[in-house]
Amino acid sequence: MIQLFLIAARNLxxxxxxxxxxVAGCAVALLAFVMxxxxxxxxxxGAEHAAQDRLGTRHKVTFIMPLPxxxxxxxxxxxxxxxATFANWFGAKIPTQPDEFFAxxxxxxxxxxxxxxxxxxxPEDKARWLADKKGAIVGHVLAKKMGWKxxxxxxxxxxxxxxxxxxxxDGIYKASKKSMxxxxxxxxxxxxxxxxxxxxxxxxxxxxxxVTDTSRSGEISREIDRIFDERDTQTVTMSERAMNVSxxxxxxxxxxxxxxxxxIILGIMLLVLGNTIAxxxxxxxxxxxxxxxxxxxxxxxxxxxxxxxxxxxIVSGVVGVGIAYPFVNNMVGxxxxxxxxxxxxxxxxxxxxxxxxxxxxIALAAFASLIPSIQAGRVSVTDALRRVG
Amino acid sequence: MSTESTNERTSKPNAEAKAMQSDxxxxxxxxxxxxxxxxxxxxxGVTKTFFRGKEPLTVLDGLSLSIEEGGFxxxxxxxxxxxxxxxxxxxxxxxxxxxKAIIAGNDIGAMSDGELAKFRARHIGFIFQSYNLMPVLxxxxxxxxxxxxxxxxxxxRRKRAETALRVTGLENRMDHYPRQLSGGQEQRVAIARAxxxxxxxxxxxxxxxxxDRKSADDILELLTKLNVDFKKTILMVTHDPAAADRATxxxxxxxxxxx
Lengths: 389, 259
Ligand SMILES: Nc1ncnc2c1ncn2[C@@H]1O[C@H](COP(=O)(O)OP(=O)(O)OP(=O)(O)O)[C@@H](O)[C@H]1O
Ligand SMILES: [Mg+2]
Known about the structure:
Chain A is of the alpha+beta class. Helix content of chain A is 56%, strand content 16%.
């Protein structure tokens, strides 16, 4: 059995050219498949890893509209709320690189890193930051990309809050969860607020709170919103997970399209494999007839064909994933995490995706060989032997 | 109806053959003493009809034939006379349309496909005109092929394949691939493959058809040795009178009948 498998595998060496092209074709298809799957899984990372015990409270109409700062105190009073913090979307850009997008927030200094405890900052960095009114803490990916080091002075150009804003890089954070973007810049809300006047003053973008009991997060969300029901500004509170899910629901058509495309890619792969296998079987008809004459039975011949195909699948799968892994993780993934970190904070091939791709390659090859193998098993020995001398 | 033309044996006298016995490897001693006069191939009233569409084509027409154990017979006849068809029946690759074919005690017409496959694996060694070796396998691996159907260990398989190759004079070519061998050498590998499992009968369909005179003579010499020393029953289809001369008996087939 094993011998038969090994012999079948060696048939692939026969037409190097064809084998190489088939493997290359399948590898490219698998690369595309792995990338699409990674997009889908990266998309889901947000929902899967989103904290369920963290609630976001924002303006009922849209998150662009701010809330009065005193709302934070009300939220802190709600039973079941453990900690709460707030932040404003700052939306500033680097004057020399206006196309570089990165998230930047004005945050409540004392509490922000308690609520967002997946942003890991060393105690020294944090202490330095708390003592520095113009201090900012940046994600390590952003820092690396911009070449910022601790102690650097950085000037950002405000869009929502016009003017040039000067910051000192006081610390660097690193996310401990895949769902956290490593390219943010956060600074003291007080620094922003002190510079504002009129309507913009003492307003916050949203409140983030942590609850003691995850199972009650829906209940607590409604409780928070009820407090503000009678006020001028009403709110919507949702767990981070729920927010992500509803955000993604808006893209469901796109995601379905990606799923369909990934299935189409597999279909193309099936055809490529099927073609190669069918060609090989046709050429080897006489050899199968000789095997049969020697006393091998039709199932041996079928096994022989499927074994050859499976080997082709294994080689294609390993090569495809072997290319996809470094390509996605070191090239595409890096670029996406640096440039689209807000949407895809974690763009890497999941081990499961890689395993799935190899398994699919083998399964498709075996499936593609099914009909050729049945045909090979049915070959009339006498006819096949007569055909040539 | 059938006339048998007996040729002078080109082999050694019996006594000398006995002395050779010790040279015959252990694995080929099963048939050491063939029962002379006992028919190992017995056909009676065998008919084979093919259909081309609705058109019936009777290739073998009520043919009767008996070949004794340890015989070396040649089968000649014009192209299309049904030689290969007859050989295929005897080898258990096909069943007669009517009549009886008893080969090594097995009624070919009454056996299932699976039984025929096992019959071939046990009793038949094939030698084809075009060698039909697996190009991806070395000589040794090609020869081992029939043994994959047995329960022999891999070392035993290897040993037997090497012995068979030694018998056919290829001890220096065991790790060569078919494309690295001459036609005559390829045919020797094919013969080694045909004898490695120690079959009862060797069927050869124009075994020298693709070879030059010298290589053909070598192959015929080898077949004679297998017949005389190894006591193999050999049935050989050939167009070559020189090849037929090596056989003890030459039969002529014409339009489906032996003459
Ligand atoms: N499976 C088949 N279906 C239809 N016709 C067949 C089949 N096998 C053989 N024939 C026909 O039977 C006849 C005898 O064929 P066979 O191959 O036995 O001849 P042969 O004596 O071996 O000839 P050659 O010397 O050319 O090899 C031919 O006319 C051939 O076309
Ligand atoms: Mg023929």
